[in-house]
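User: Sequence recovery, please. Input:
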């Protein structure tokens, strides 16, 4: 399926739930891919790649971290993501130390094999 990059970008910027599961966003600077509604801080546009499926994103060696972070979202009691901090907006939605160690590291290690 051909994707319209401008439409995909608008959907990501709006975190539009209508597009959840219809495409995936790969981030070239981090080698992570996620759904367009992902609550983390959004990457620069030039670092985004749009894929019609998770499998297509996997072909470019992105790590899928959805399973690792399931149950550890912002509102969960064991959050692995920083919530919004108006005094340090750059850290908002970024992984905590536990998120880095228990979420990203296993996904990256698995992707590197």
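Assistant: Recovered sequence (113 residues):
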């Amino acid at each position: 399926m051909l994707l319209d990059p401008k439409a995909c970008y608008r959907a990501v910027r709006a975190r539009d739930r209508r597009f959840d599961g219809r495409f995936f966003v790969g981030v070239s600077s981090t080698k992570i891919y996620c759904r367009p509604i992902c609550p983390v801080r959004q990457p620069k546009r030039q670092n985004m790649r749009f894929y019609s499926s998770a499998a297509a994103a996997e072909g470019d060696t992105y790590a899928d971290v959805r399973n690792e972070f399931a149950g550890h979202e912002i509102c969960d009691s064991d959050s692995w993501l920083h919530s919004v901090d108006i005094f340090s907006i750059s850290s908002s939605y970024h992984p905590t130390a536990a998120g880095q160690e228990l979420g990203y590291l296993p996904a990256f290690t698995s992707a590197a094999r």
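Strands lie at 24-27, 32-34, 48-51, 63-64.
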